[in-house]
Amino acid sequence: MNQLLAIRVFARVVEAGSFVKAADSLEMPKATVSKLIQDLETFLHVRLLQRTTRNVTVTDDGARYYEQTARVIRDLEEIDGGFQSALFNPRGTLRVNIGSSVATALVIPALPEFFARYPDIKIDLGVSDRNIDLISDNVDCVIRGGAIREQSLSARLLGRASCTTCATPAYLQQFGLPTHPSQLDHEHRIVSFHLARTNRLIPAAFQRGDEVIEVVGNSLLSVNESNAHVAAGLAGLGVIHTFTYAVQPYLDSGQLVPILQDWRPAPYPFHVVYPPNRNLSNRVRVFIDWLVDHFSTLQ
């Protein structure tokens, strides 16, 4: 039995919660994964996993073994990664997931510079405003906005984005210029944003000094995708409250006009998030470092 391989496979089954998902992410036959786990349990004389027809759960012994071996695997990967970084150019495919407005406005336009620097790396880019499971979806890293609540994940701060409230000149000519966020509740229309997975409306947050106001607003349209949100604002369907980077070109051209500029929430943090126990290959490391450098000028 290759014990180190068996330990790596065991860790992936624990993280994925499934033999099938672990096998897919490791590009191994499911039978090979099952055999390695059985051999490891026989070698240790303990039951590491409880298997049913629907799911896999970790035993108490399995949880302790995972916790202790995960530290060893991380140490080995750091050692290997250090040698690989010095000897080889990063190569291979990265699986990355990011939100639509971040992809359109920030990441994709800058990718030519990344590929020029690392021509042997390919990126499989998933673009979605929904949160995904990095382990079960076999993703190397994601960019997420807001506070990081999953303590089991590693994260690096990329930057903080400001928000802008704006509307088209034609809309403002028809409805007037609001001077207080409360006017968006009755005298104006707001293009609402709701989460794709839960359908929950996200209120627009405003802050001036110590005063904080959240506005749901009166809306004819609610969308669940960032680029569609901006498109609705450009169509004159209402006021939009969104990240400045997403609307900056339209503010510069005059297609959108900023309003309520003295009412802005605190800057919104963005992080790159990745599984702590996943092998951070050299290609993942250089991509994360590139993101941190690229986002350093985010406003």
Task: Write up what this structure looks like.
The chain is an alpha+beta fold and 299 residues long. It has 3 domains: 3-86, Arc Repressor Mutant, subunit A, CATH 1.10.10; 89-158 and 269-297, Periplasmic binding protein-like II (D-Maltodextrin-Binding Protein, domain 2, 3-Layer(aba) Sandwich), CATH 3.40.190; 163-266, Periplasmic binding protein-like II (D-Maltodextrin-Binding Protein, domain 2, 3-Layer(aba) Sandwich). It has 10 helices and 15 strands. It has helices at 3-16, 19-26, 30-44, 60-87, 100-107, 111-117, 169-175, 226-234, 244-253, 282-294; strands spanning 49-51, 56-58, 92-98, 121-127, 141-145, 154-161, 163-167, 192-194, 201-202, 204-208, 211-215, 222-223, 240-243, 257-259, 268-274. It has a 5-stranded mixed sheet with strand order 4-3-5-15-6. The protein has a 3-stranded antiparallel sheet with strand order 13-7-14. A 3-stranded mixed sheet has the order 9-8-12. A hairpin with a 6-residue loop joins strand 8 and strand 9 (201-202). Helix 1 (3-16) crosses helix 2 and helix 2 crosses helix 3 (30-44). The longest helix has 28 residues, at 60-87. It starts with a helix and ends in a 5-residue tail after the last helix.
